[in-house]
Amino acid sequence: MASAFEWDRLPHDLQRSILLRLPISTLLLCKSLSRSFLDTIRSPTFLDAYSSLRRGRRSRHRDDLFLLLFADCSRHGLAAAYLPSRACWLPLPLPPLLNHIHASDGSLVVAATGKNSGEDVVCDLFSRTVIPILPRMPHSYILALIADEASSDFRIVAVGSQKPVGNALNAVYVSSQVYDSRSGRWQPKGQLPGHYAMLGNAVFLDGLLFVLGRLPDHLLTFDLDSGEWSVVDVALPPPVFCLHLLVFEGRLFLVGGLEEDVVIARIGIWELDLTKSEKEWRLFCFMPDEYFQEFSVNELVHFQTIDRFGIVCFCNTRESVVLVCDLSSKTWWWPPAFGVIPKRRRSWLGHALDLPMGLLK
């Protein structure tokens, strides 16, 4: 980093152009170095320009990515976060009122407080801001959180029936509702057949929520504005387990484990071209055999996946083994060993977060 004197000799437009290309984590450091940095970064014109650039990028700065992998089951409120860009682990304190995190997006999580069923809050884990929300419908669960960083607005999708979730498959229809932070209310938004009651993960792409339907396995879409559910006419790669949808650079991917003799023999990543009329999941890559052998330990029957910005993190939760893949280069690596939480006390958390622009203000 140049000295403050050398920096001040640069034309103001050049200073601004350089700062606009830096990740939030670096800008936070710059703010602490000099008054000149602080005034520029906190100015409304800079923040507006930075926000516009972030919206224009399909992938934001990976330097701002935190993979929240494990919680300490013996010490409430402590999590372990892996920072891929720095190849290091950090302890991340969680607000004590959070009991269970349902879903996340950006720096936000929607979580149960543990007081009563259906009572949730939205929390920014970096600014520690907590927003109470109205209770959702009975016998429902949170499917997705969609955050709009530019406006600080967010929406939450919940799905449920008149019966408890365990009996929802017997329901004729399952209802969905959407919470909008602008109104502070839940609104009923559509229904889907009861046999789709057990849903997998969901990702937001091109104005639609893509959702994994389980038992049977299907790819569904949900329009948050109209409440319309649709089944995408495409077969999932068989026989695949531990499915996980992800979005990278405006493209839709699917992670899954190929089963052989009741165990997972390979882990693959497939891509779906949504522009074609005849849709098909095409193989993108497999986890290399040498990595898979070490990842599976003796035999693999289940694994977890989280992702953000094209960084995909796989976890063999039984053995607490973590492996990371960069989709843009198809490179794989092992994170360093960590002692933030002893292995015997680790419970899977599984959320990918990134620093919010609000920290720059």
TrEMBL record:
Domain F-box: start-end pairs: 7-46
InterPro entries linked to this entry: F-box-like_dom_sf, F-box_dom, Gal_Oxase/kelch_b-propeller, Kelch-typ_b-propeller, SCF_F-box_component
Pfam families named among the record's database cross-references: F-box
Domain of life: Eukaryota
Name of the featured protein: (wild Malaysian banana) hypothetical protein
Native organism: Musa acuminata subsp. malaccensis (Wild banana)
